[in-house]
Amino acid sequence: MPQPLALVFYERLMPGSQLVNRLQDLNYRVLVLNSIELLVATAKREKPLLLLTDLLTASDVCGAIARIKTETDTSHLPIIAFAPESETALIAAAQKAGANFAVTETGLNSHLPHMIDRALQVD
C-alpha cells in the first residue's frame, strides 16, 4: 500500500523540519512547500490526504486556507495549522479561515497522531 501524502507549508526551519520528520516517522510521504503561491495549485494537483501549515510566516496563510476550503477540488482537504503559543490571533484567524485544527506548536508536538486521526475522520 502506498504511503499517504501530507503536504506541509513552512518558512521557519525548526518547527517545519521537526514536523516533517515526525510525519515520516508516522509513515507519511511528505511534500514540503515554502511558497504560499504554490500551495493551492499543489494541493489540487497532488491530492494530499492532509495539509499542515505554519501560520507564523510572511505569507497570507489564512487566505490560502480560505481558498483551499472554497475550491471544489480541495474543500474536503483536512488542514492542521499551527503557531507559537503567543500567536493566539493567528490561531483564531486560521480557525475562521476554515482550518480543521488551529493549534499551538506545543499542542501539535504533543498530540500530532491524535490530531491527524481526528482531522481524517469522516462525519
Which key features would you list for this structure?
5-stranded parallel β-sheet; 5 helices; single chain; 123 residues; alpha/beta
Can you put this structure into words, describing what you see?
- By secondary structure, this protein is α/β, with parallel strands linked by helices.
- 49% of the residues lie in helices and 20% in strands.
- The chain contains five helices and five strands.
- The chain has helices spanning 13-25, 36-46, 61-70, 88-97, 105-120, and strands at 5-9, 29-33, 50-54, 79-83, 101-104.
- A five-stranded parallel beta sheet has the order 2-1-3-4-5, sandwiched between helices.
- Helix 1 (13-25) links the parallel strand 1 (5-9) and strand 2 (29-33).
- The longest helix is centred in the C-terminal third of the chain and has 16 residues, at 105-120.
- The radius of gyration is 13 Å and the shape is globular.
- The protein starts with a strand and ends with a helix.
